[in-house]
Each structure stands twice: as C-alpha cells, then as structure tokens.
Hints:
mainly alpha, Non-ribosomal Peptide Synthetase Peptidyl Carrier Protein, Chain A, globular
Amino acid sequence: MIADDITSAIVNALTSVAPEVDPMSIRPGVSFRDQLDLDSMDFLNFVLALHDRLGIDIPERDYPKLYTFDGALAYLASKVTGNHL
C-alpha cells in the first residue's frame, strides 16, 4: 500500500463521518476536531472506518496520533509498511 492509498482511505473515512467536508480544504497539520468540528463519536467513527478500510488495529492509546492528517498518514503508513513515509 502506498501513500496515495492511505491518503484516499483517510479522506474516505473522514467524509463517511462528515459528508459535508471538502477534502481539498483539509489542512494537514491542524487537528481534525478543530478544523472539521468533529465530536468524540465522529472521531471514533473515523477510527473505525480506517480500521475497516485498511484492516489495521488501532489501539485507543494511539488515537492522538490520528488527530491530524499528517499524523494519521505517518501512523498508518508505519502500520502498513513498517516504515514512515
């Protein structure tokens, strides 16, 4: 799996919990909760959608690594490939 696949999975997961989100407006280093006004349940559903799409177990202790687009991309890439992008 490459960065484009992971990027697509993140965008799809976000838009599944917040369909009003314009993927082009997502700022990479800003918290999803701040920029997209996600609440706790939205964020949990985002994590579950990533799990379903990528087949990656994401323990609760790692949730903070998924707070931003850049963080989510780096975390998921390390889980999928064993490397950082």
